[in-house]
Amino acid sequence: MDFLNKGIMKEQPVSTHGHGREPRVVVVGAGMAGVGAVGALTAAGIRDVTLLEARDRPGGRVQNVVMDDGFVELGAQFLHGKNQVYNIAEREGMLADEPSGNESLPDTLLQFRPFAFQSSDGDNVNPVIVTHNLQVLEELLAAANAAMEGKAEPDIDASVGDFFRGHYKVTMAKMMGSEEVKDAMFRWMELWECQDTGGSVQQLSLAGDAQYAFCPGNGTRVTTQGMEEVFKCLLKDSVPEGCLRLNKPVKVIHWTAGGGLNAETSRGGGEVDVEEDSSKSEERTKLYSFNNNLISSENLEEETSRLNELNAAFSIGTKPKGTSSETVVTREPSDIIFDKDTDRTKPEFSVMIECVDGDVIFADHVIVTSSIGFLRSNPDFFQPRLSEEHQKAVSSMGFGNVAKMFLLWDAEKGSFLQNCCPCLPDVATEWTQRMLGSDVAGVIPLWLDGSDTQLKSAKYSKKMENGRQWYEEVSIYHLIQSHSFCLVAWVGGEAAIIMESLPVSEVKDVLHELLTLFMDKPDLPPPCRFIRSEWHSNPYTRGAYSYLAAGVPLELHQVLSHPLPSSKDPVVQLAGEACSKHYYSTMHGALQSGQLAARAVLSRYNLAQQ
Asked: 448 exposed, middle or buried (CB, 10 Å; 0-12, 13-18, 19+)?
């Protein structure tokens, strides 16, 4: 049976709730985690499920934008190894062809060998030197990843930056080229790590970073139609018609342990006074001491086994190709209260969800998939607030920002292509060669130590905490398969936050001037169009994705994912990529976390194994 096929449910509805009715579950956020939760719940026979999305589209941090004859991906775009999301893309025939000679290349620095490393003085670094130095730097990354292996008590205060700088001299001695080039490549490697996590290497936990696990296959892949189309297939498979409500932001979630919303709870006044039995009290004591035996398994083998189990249980990737990718048509469920004037005393429910428009929804369980950035920016989102330990985990978890900036040209108007007929099939190849050179996938700017180039187009002159301008943190320009005349530039951390605050016209001009400087092509025409991601500015995300920060317990992911008030009574649960111990910051990690949150609810009704 295909549990993810839309509309396929158990023949007999579930009616095991204590009040003689089916349990009601509300899922907040229609991203990967939210859709994963709904799919798991409905597959097991829970029919009274509502999925609320604040924005006018589902997908969360997965978003395509059509541009000309192609598209750009403002959010998640990479498949990291073979996992549930990969299986959907493969099933639908959406996997893009792998670059020649790159069929088994893992997600490492060696993937940048086809790029032109250009120094700030306009020189191109010899490709032989580039390849050698990338190998040396990759060995440093591998050593950092293995630094905490076998240690009974890993040093949680150690940062990745501490490790890098502690091995700076040894690494520099192994590298080739001038001291200036070697230093610039070392700093670029640190910069890339920042843009791979959203936080600086000094913020990134050495022990926590080592917890990240690569799925089998290791390489990164993109899709032919964009990750949003892959997501739509998952949405169609997982979410029954009428379940999804768009443009429905939640204002506050009132909840109580043990069932029974009273007037005091509904007003959000004070802590809920609940008597717990000794077993629940003991369970909470264990949880809040940050021990390792929480929902997520302690070791990678168990976590991988659980991921495989989820793959099998929810039949991801087994449905025949051809699933429609249309967004689910929404309707208002008739059996759910959407009434601004409704009585807010509902003793048979444990959750009351108050929407921004004044509508109220009652439920037995709520699964919240909002980002760490949103939860941190809205401390009163839950009434009463989450446990002290959950609050600490939300405030302590690293949540960085990564931004993409797309520069698009019109090949017919480009002065450097004025003699090239646009109707020729190789016009894109001609454009690429004149833009970047032959057999080059992109440009990596290397700022030599002491370079202090003030760009004419940069109106914002305030420097960051590290003393650099925001544009000095642009780590790469590269081609994309989804648009023939586009370069995308990446920036992360504080620089990305600054970039989002600047006018679009200034960012476009700065990136163009920067490219002409490093490519030594003053006649390079400016882009015709420009679009950027703004995940930090978005009030519903407030950033890109999570990382484990230095100095915090390694169990934050498990604390975040633990149900409240207990695993036996999962009234409130958090889900999302930040709740995944080994797959944080990824789509498959978010999807898995939503499924695990649903499983906790199903366990409450003895449905987890069905």
From this structure: middle
To the nearest whole percent, how much of the chain has pLDDT over 90?
61
Q: Are 232 and 205 in a shared domain?
A: no
- Look at residues 161, 184, 215 and tell me which one is the last residue of a structural domain: 215
Cis bond before residue 384 (omega within 30° of 0): yes
- What distance in Å separates the CA atoms of residue 201 and residue 195, rounded to the nearest whole number? 10
Residues in the chain: 610
Position 497 in a domain: no
Do 271 and 361 share a domain, yes or no?
Answer: yes
Cβ atoms of 576 and 15 within 8 Å: the answer is no
Give the chain's domain count. Answer: 2
Decide if pLDDT at 184 tops 60.
yes
| Buried/exposed code over 63-91 (b: 16+ C-beta within 10 A; e: otherwise) | bbeebbeebbbbbbbebbbbbbbbbbbbb
Report how far apart, in Å, the C-alpha atoms of 514 and of each of 471, 518, 577 are: 8, 6, 34
Q: Looking at the structure, do residues 207 and 258 belong to the same domain, yes or no? A: no
Same domain, 200 and 278: no
Claim to verify: residue 205 and residue 263 sit in the same structural domain: no
Is residue 502 domain-resident? no
Place of tokens 């293995």: 146
Instruction: Please report the DSSP string for 214-233 in residue order.
Output: PPTT--EE-BSS-HHHHHHH
Range of the domain at 148: 127-215
Among candidate residues 158, 181, 215, the one where a domain is terminated: 215
Claim to verify: residue 143 and residue 170 sit in the same structural domain = yes
pLDDT at 315 > cutoff 90: no
User: How far apart are the C-alpha atoms of 371 and 213, rounded to whole Å?
Assistant: 21
CB 528 within 8 A of CB 412: no
Task: Give the position of tokens 């630094």.
Answer: 147
Q: Residue 496 and residue 580: Cα distance in Å, rounded?
A: 25
In whole angstroms, give the CA distance from residue 303 to residue 301. 5
Residue 498 lies in a domain: no
pLDDT computed for residue 172 by the predictor = 98
Both 146 and 177 in a single domain?
A: yes
- Mean per-residue pLDDT, 583-590: 96
- Cα 182 to Cα 90, 179, 475, 491: the distances in Å are 40, 5, 16, 21
Say if residue 239 is in the same domain as residue 367: yes
Q: What is the rounded distance in angstroms from the CA atom of residue 366 to the CA atom of residue 27?
A: 6
- Is 173 inside any structural domain? yes
Whichever domain contains 561, its CATH number is 3.50.50.60
Most confident among 161-165, 408-412, 413-417 (mean pLDDT): 161-165
Q: Are 586 and 80 in contact (CB under 8 A)?
A: yes
Amino acid at 31: G
The predicted-structure confidence for 443-487, as pLDDT tens digits, reads as follows 999 999 887 778 999 998 888 988 899 999 999 999 998 988 999
